[in-house]
């Protein structure tokens, strides 16, 4: 079995990954706040942790991985859009309009991330569906003295958790010295953070022992991870910008709510996508969305290729030169497979025959802390194979990397002509000719076998022989009329 090595941000070391339960490997990734389109930076964790999800599924089996990624749908910016729509005369209650806005943003997010070849996580919880779990977790923290209520708020007391700051390597004293924010009068310590806060009357809120209000952002992830993955699970991931304070606060809450359990074993953080040396972010305004690129005609797999060309723990830029290079490489790769008759039929024959196996070296490189660029270099070597059968590890590697999600798409991806549609009766004729050719070969009637091969060639039928089986597809020059009157 391939050993996966992961760099754990919490220990600052790379170590072999050993799941708590190999029959159910559990991973939580912090998902988006669904108030607007995702920008290209937001797509980086999605693509990177999609590779990890696929790798875990390859190593431990697809039914043995649970991947949770949440939607944060409690947010002032979602409320603002809904309020504006209401003011402009939109029908429905404010709650409905808020829910509609989240639904709309989630649908965009799905469409954009699907286009990048990212698989949907196993579970995608919405924070608003888990408020009860958040309230119980906060009640537990108050009861055990790790949190206190003040003026309708509930705050986590960082002094009650001596390990606070361990993940990001900061001490509470340094944090206080470095903080420039104005401290709310109800906080006992300036670093204490909000678990629950009051909701204004005109905004959505939920009943709680501390009055009508809503959860803080950090408790959402702690509560959903606990409900869906348990008190201790394998991997927790997100962008480096979340390490402090978001992940530090998640650890404090979860470890205090479930003492002795440990929360996540491994922490992974992707570095930032940058624009001229600065994090691409909504607040800086230096962003463009995934949809902007797709609309400009940049294919999703090209965006994915560029993302994966840089190691996830290094900052990276998006440049047009990288886009062009990725496009040329992918075209070349898909063209090779197309020329060797690859398509849904060929792939399913290879899979059924058990010939769809990953190249061990490719897998080993990828498993080394997700060395995606190294894995792509290995794919380049594998792409040099000369026959359809020997190209199988290359094709399987492209699928594992998520560059191909539908083998019927190869024509589009290779930039070749579209594969012509074929009627069922014409297809039956082609198959009869292929079967007759196989029978002629079996009978060692080489002249007849050659004649049938030429007929198929002339009609533009591309036949790929894989061991005992043949698959076929119409080439761009396919001409059904040349099959008339033949059997
Ligand atoms: N420039 C970036 N590069 C890589 N990852 C990023 C970048 N910006 C945000 N992320 C990641 O995107 C995910 C979604 O984050 P979130 O929804 O909080 O972003 P946001 O607040 O909408 O964006 P911004 O950070 O631009 O304000 C998080 O895992 C976060 O770490
Ligand atoms: Zn989170």
Automatic annotation (TrEMBL):
Catalytic activity from the UniProt record: tRNA(Cys) + L-cysteine + ATP = L-cysteinyl-tRNA(Cys) + AMP + diphosphate
Single biological process term from Gene Ontology: cysteinyl-tRNA aminoacylation
UniProt-listed Enzyme Commission number(s): 6.1.1.16
SUPFAM superfamilies according to UniProt: Anticodon-binding domain of a subclass of class I aminoacyl-tRNA synthetases (SSF47323), Nucleotidylyl transferase (SSF52374)
Record-annotated tRNA synthetases class I catalytic domain positions: 17-324
Cofactor note: Binds 1 zinc ion per subunit.
Motif 'HIGH' region: where in chain: 32-42
Positions of ATP binding: 282
Domain Cysteinyl-tRNA ligase anticodon binding, residue spans: 424-472
InterPro entries given in the database record: Cys-tRNA-ligase, Cys-tRNA/MSH_ligase, CysS_C, Rossmann-like_a/b/a_fold, tRNA-synt_1_cat_dom, tRNAsynth_Ia_anticodon-bd
GO CC terms of this entry: cytosol
Protein name: Cysteine--tRNA ligase
Organism, as annotated: Flavimaricola marinus
